[in-house]
Amino acid sequence: MPSFNMDTEPPIKICQALRAAGLRATGKRALILEIIRKGQGHLDAREIHRRALTKTPSLNLSTVYRNLQKLTELGLIEEFHFDEDHHHYEAKPITEHHHLICLGCGRIVEFDYNLARYVTKNVTGAANFLVIKSEVYMTGYCPDCRKQIE
User: Fold this and answer.
1) Does the pLDDT of residue 143 top 80, yes or no?
2) Could you tell me the pTM of the whole model?
3) I need a labelling partner for 125 at 20 to 30 A (CA). Which of 44, 59, 92, 142 fits?
């Protein structure tokens, strides 16, 4: 499948990538991709569905789930499991990044830090293990929620 950056590529390129992966570029699928692409954050299936209903009122939540699964399998989007109950989705990023999750409000903040690359590199060398992807997330409290608990 051709590689591209969903954050900057126009929808026509995304449709071409779907076709190259053997998927029909349906209106619902394109809408789901567009919502994720423009979502500027980590959206769960219910939020994607809620936003999609404004343009396609007949869209079922089960359709959203099926498409999210397929788009994840194809590598067009990434799925994150920050807790047992919620899976969040984002456009496939250009560079690896990590997440801070607020335990108070649920806000997710992306960050990039060299420590993650350093650990990945050293684990690879120490254990002779080929690391394909690493996922780092930390939980705590954002500045607003810290004010409420301090």
Assistant:
1) yes
2) 0.61
3) 92
